[in-house]
């Protein structure tokens, strides 16, 4: 019998394009025993065996939030024999924010978001079907094809009703939150996004620093929806809820046709982890945590 570990390794080497994220990637063994954090000039740094953690470009990985620093340290501490860097989202986000390999500016990311709005997942509902009526003849070829087709058309109607139920409240919240009006797609054409909406959202995005916008981009790409990511940032949705809404059509099909017990849950967990990591960086960038020594009784009495 082939050992379980060998079977798993064989599977992970698959060339299936749908399983690329499970293929072998460059790894290195864990080279440190413990992790920690230290404060330096109102910044928090992560240490591996008392050595400062650095970015790929050689910069000291320093963040402005103690909870974020502790979360990154915990991420490194959770590694076992091999360091799985592709799933260390917090470290990757902070590395990108510090090194900025794409040489981007906050305006570049804001423009990217504004262009993404018109293709947002929440703005594309399933098409409503037209109610056709067959002639009723038992041997009519058209009627036989109709009854085959109507099964799939009925699915489209059910999916659209589900989308209106689940997506509708979020779109309504978005319009009230920013005092804008946003249409949904009719057919295959992207819905229009008004100049006023773009101006309001541009001011919103640019209210965040580069690190937060970079992390927000990571979440938007995971959800395929700036609107869902904004709802998460504004604490209207939790990451798990946002991932469910982003995968609504897939979940609809899985409920009807069944699911592979581990594969779909793994994908959902991975997306949830990405969004949660993005939110931690975004919220931490808006808060400044610092540690101060307690004053002695003599100092307090003065």
TrEMBL record:
<dbReference type="GO" id="GO:0033615">
    <property type="term" value="P:mitochondrial proton-transporting ATP synthase complex assembly"/>
</dbReference>
<dbReference type="GO" id="GO:0005739">
    <property type="term" value="C:mitochondrion"/>
</dbReference>
<dbReference type="InterPro" id="IPR011419">
    <property type="entry name" value="ATP12_ATP_synth-F1-assembly"/>
</dbReference>
<dbReference type="InterPro" id="IPR042272">
    <property type="entry name" value="ATP12_ATP_synth-F1-assembly_N"/>
</dbReference>
<dbReference type="Pfam" id="PF07542">
    <property type="entry name" value="ATP12"/>
</dbReference>
<dbReference type="InterPro" id="IPR023335">
    <property type="entry name" value="ATP12_ortho_dom_sf"/>
</dbReference>
<protein>
    <recommendedName>
        <fullName>ATP synthase mitochondrial F1 complex assembly factor 2</fullName>
    </recommendedName>
</protein>
<keyword id="KW-0496">Mitochondrion</keyword>
<comment type="similarity">
    <text>Belongs to the ATP12 family.</text>
</comment>
<keyword id="KW-0143">Chaperone</keyword>
<keyword id="KW-0809">Transit peptide</keyword>
């Amino acid at each position: 019998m082939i050992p379980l570990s060998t079977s798993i390794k064989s599977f992970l080497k698959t060339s299936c394009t749908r399983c690329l994220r499970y293929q072998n990637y460059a790894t290195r063994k864990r080279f440190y025993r413990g992790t920690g954090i230290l404060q330096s000039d109102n910044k928090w740094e992560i240490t591996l065996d008392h050595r400062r953690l650095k970015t790929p470009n050689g910069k000291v990985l320093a963040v402005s939030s103690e909870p974020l620093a502790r979360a990154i340290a915990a991420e490194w501490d959770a590694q076992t024999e091999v360091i799985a860097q592709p799933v260390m989202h917090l470290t990757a986000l902070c590395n990108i924010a510090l090194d900025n390999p794409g040489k981007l500016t906050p305006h570049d990311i804001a423009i990217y978001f504004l262009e993404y709005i018109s293709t947002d997942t929440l703005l594309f509902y399933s098409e409503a079907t037209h109610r056709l009526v067959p002639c009723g003849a038992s041997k009519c070829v058209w009627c036989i094809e109709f009854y085959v087709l109507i099964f799939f058309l009925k699915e489209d109607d059910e999916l659209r009703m589900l989308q209106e139920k689940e997506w509708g409240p979020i779109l309504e919240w978005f319009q009230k939150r920013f005092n804008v009006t946003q249409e949904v797609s009719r057919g295959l054409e992207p819905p229009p996004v008004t100049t006023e909406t773009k101006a309001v959202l541009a001011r919103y995005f640019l209210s965040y620093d580069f690190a937060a916008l970079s992390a927000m981009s990571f979440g938007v790409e995971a959800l395929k929806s700036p609107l869902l990511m904004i709802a998460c940032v504004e604490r209207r949705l939790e990451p798990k809820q946002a991932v469910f809404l982003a995968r609504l059509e897939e979940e609809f099909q899985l409920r009807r046709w069944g699911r592979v017990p581990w594969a779909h849950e793994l994908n959902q967990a991975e997306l949830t982890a990405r969004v949660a990591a993005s939110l931690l960086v975004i919220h931490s960038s808006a808060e400044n945590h610092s540690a101060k020594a307690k004053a002695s009784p003599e100092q307090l009495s003065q």
